Amino acid sequence: MKIADPDQTTLVNEVRLMLEELPLDRARVLELGCGRAEKTRTLAESGRVAEIVALEVDEIQHQRNLAITDLPNVRFCRGGAEAIPVDDASVDVVLMFKSLHHVPVASMDRALAEIARVLRPGGLAWISEPVYAGELNGIMCLFHDEKVVREAAFAALRRAVDDGRLTLVRQYFFDTRSFFENFEQFDQRMIRVTHSNHALSPELYAQVQAKFASFLGPEGATFLNPQRVDLLRKA
Length: 235
Description:
The chain has helices at residues 14-21, 38-44, 59-66, 108-118, 135-140, 147-162, 183-191, 202-213, and strands at residues 28-32, 51-56, 74-78, 91-97, 119-130, 167-180, 221-233. It is of the alpha/beta class. It has a domain at 14-131 and 145-175 and 226-233: Vaccinia Virus protein VP39 (Rossmann fold). A seven-stranded mixed β-sheet has the order 3-2-1-4-5-7-6. The protein is globular and about 50 Å long. The two termini are 18 Å apart.
């Protein structure tokens, strides 16, 4: 396993890739850290899966998700990956989009043990993580540097594979695109989030704004973000 591939520059829609690569027909899917449920909705409306259990640890976002009433095959639950409220061997596919590094470092091994517990034999886990690189990361690390937690998440994945809890099927390396019309949109989506308390001083806020402005053109700011997916299977 490797944490990054500096030579990989293919631009990919990760959700489309996931839909192409995973055996989702009639599957029971568990999504850990579903956030605003955008990927949840895409998967639910594909008509392929039998059920999605979508977990979110952030209480504010979870309450917003509970207000979604037009996805009858989705069950929203509050919880984290280190204590998954589903039965043993009851899930065909686990999805974790850029959320393993948000699990407390001391609980990462437990989270991967929980994923192995809930997967049926032969079940798959699609665990995507941002690579610590790219221009957007250069802005984010001014106020929210994730280098340590991303490295810890990768180390936990390696331990889960090395001790046989999960088997590595394949690694994918690619870029995704982020677009912001202006700094106000960046502020709302990246700074004023409910799952983290980014309390920036006026001086730091101005520094972040200036750094963002260096990438801003007449039509907004576009960033390419390197990603990694580790596709794992339960024996």
